[in-house]
Amino acid sequence: MTRPPLKLYLADPRGFCAGVVRAIEIVEQAIEKWGAPVYVRHEIVHNKHVVDELRAKGAVFVEELDECPADRPVVFSAHGVPKAVPAEAERRNMLYVDATCPLVSKVHIEAERHHDRGYQIVMIGHEGHPETIGTMGQLPEGEVILVETAEDVARITPRDPSRLAFITQTTLSVDDTADVVAALKARFPQIVGPHKEDICYATTNRQAAVKEMAPKIDALLVVGAPNSSNSQRLVEVGRAAGCAYAMLVQSAADIDWRAIEGVGAVGVTAGASAPEVLVEGVIESFRRRFELDIVRVVTAEENISFKVPRILRMAV
C-alpha cells in the first residue's frame, strides 16, 4: 500500500538543555563515584524515561529528605530546593550534591540580593512547581509573593509598594510572562526587575522554534512529560500561535493517529527534559505510516554547557 505524503517540521533547538544534561551527569557520576544506591530528592528532571534509566543504574528517587538514610549520598534535583533542605542535610551530616540548574541558582541569588536591599519579592511562577517552591524557599516566609497571571497582580498587597522587585520561574511562557510583567509595572511603577531575563535561554529558544513552525503546520506534537512546565508551555505557545491541534506526548505510543488523519504537515519538538531518543521514536512512527519530507526549522544555535560540582571532580 502506498503511504500518503506528509511534511514533518522538526524544531531545532529541541530537547535537552545544558541544565538537564548537567543534572543527569551528576547522578550518573555520583553512582560511579560512590556506588549504588544514590538517593535523589524529587525527580532529577521531569521525564519518566530519564528517571527510569537512572533508577536502573542505581538511583533511588524520593520526595523528601527524611526518606534518605544518612549514610548514603543524596542529589538535589535540577529544579532547586528551599534553603531548609541542604541545612537539614548538613545537620544530619549527609553527603549531598546540588544539581540545581545554574540558571535557577541565578534567580535564587537575585532574590537574596533584592532581599538584602530591603525589597519584598514578587515571583511570577506556577504554584506547587518544584522550582517555585525552591526559589520561594530561599527567603523567609512572607518575603516572596507568588503571582501566576496578570489578573493576580491586582489582588496582591505588598508590604511597601515602593520597595518591590520581581523574579520569574525559568520555564514560563515568554509571552504570558511579558503580560504579567507589564501588569506589575503598571501597578507598581517603581518595581525593580532582573538585570537579565530570568526565563532561560532553552525555554525561550524552544518557544521561538514553535512560533516559527506554527503557521506552516496542521498539528503540533510536543515530546515531554505531563509534569514538565517547559513542555506544557510549548503546547500552549503552539496553540496561541494558531496551531489548531497541539498535543503533549510522552513517546510515540501516545500519538493519537485518528486526530491527525488527513493532515498535510506536522510539527515535532521536545521539552528541555525530553531525550532525543523519544523524538527519534516519534519520527520513526511517522515514517512507518507516511512518505516523510522532513524539514528542519532552525531558529537558534545552542552551545552552552555547565560543569558538574567540584565534589564530583575530586578523587574519592
From TrEMBL:
Positions that bind isopentenyl diphosphate: 46, 79, 129, 228-230, 273
Keyword Chloroplast carried by entry: no
A biological process term (GO) from this entry: dimethylallyl diphosphate biosynthetic process
Coiled-coil annotated residue ranges, if any: none
Cofactor note: Binds 1 [4Fe-4S] cluster per subunit.
Residues binding [4Fe-4S] cluster, per UniProt: 17, 101, 200
Keyword Transcription regulation: no
Pathway: Isoprenoid biosynthesis; isopentenyl diphosphate biosynthesis via DXP pathway; isopentenyl diphosphate from 1-deoxy-D-xylulose 5-phosphate: step 6/6; Isoprenoid biosynthesis; dimethylallyl diphosphate biosynthesis; dimethylallyl diphosphate from (2E)-4-hydroxy-3-methylbutenyl diphosphate: step 1/1
Binding site for dimethylallyl diphosphate: 46, 79, 129, 228-230, 273
Keywords: 4Fe-4S, Iron, Iron-sulfur, Isoprene biosynthesis, Metal-binding, Oxidoreductase
InterPro entries to which the protein is assigned, alphabetical: LytB/IspH
Catalytic activity from the UniProt record: isopentenyl diphosphate + 2 oxidized [2Fe-2S]-[ferredoxin] + H2O = (2E)-4-hydroxy-3-methylbut-2-enyl diphosphate + 2 reduced [2Fe-2S]-[ferredoxin] + 2 H(+); dimethylallyl diphosphate + 2 oxidized [2Fe-2S]-[ferredoxin] + H2O = (2E)-4-hydroxy-3-methylbut-2-enyl diphosphate + 2 reduced [2Fe-2S]-[ferredoxin] + 2 H(+)
A single GO molecular function term of this UniProt record: 4 iron, 4 sulfur cluster binding
Enzyme class label: oxidoreductase
Required cofactor names: [4Fe-4S] cluster
NCBIfam families: ispH_lytB (TIGR00216), PRK01045.1-2 (NF002188), PRK01045.1-4 (NF002190)
Family stated for the protein in its record: Belongs to the IspH family.
PANTHER family cross-referenced by the UniProt entry: 4-HYDROXY-3-METHYLBUT-2-ENYL DIPHOSPHATE REDUCTASE
Described function: Catalyzes the conversion of 1-hydroxy-2-methyl-2-(E)-butenyl 4-diphosphate (HMBPP) into a mixture of isopentenyl diphosphate (IPP) and dimethylallyl diphosphate (DMAPP). Acts in the terminal step of the DOXP/MEP pathway for isoprenoid precursor biosynthesis.
HAMAP family (alphabetical): IspH
Name assigned to this protein: 4-hydroxy-3-methylbut-2-enyl diphosphate reductase
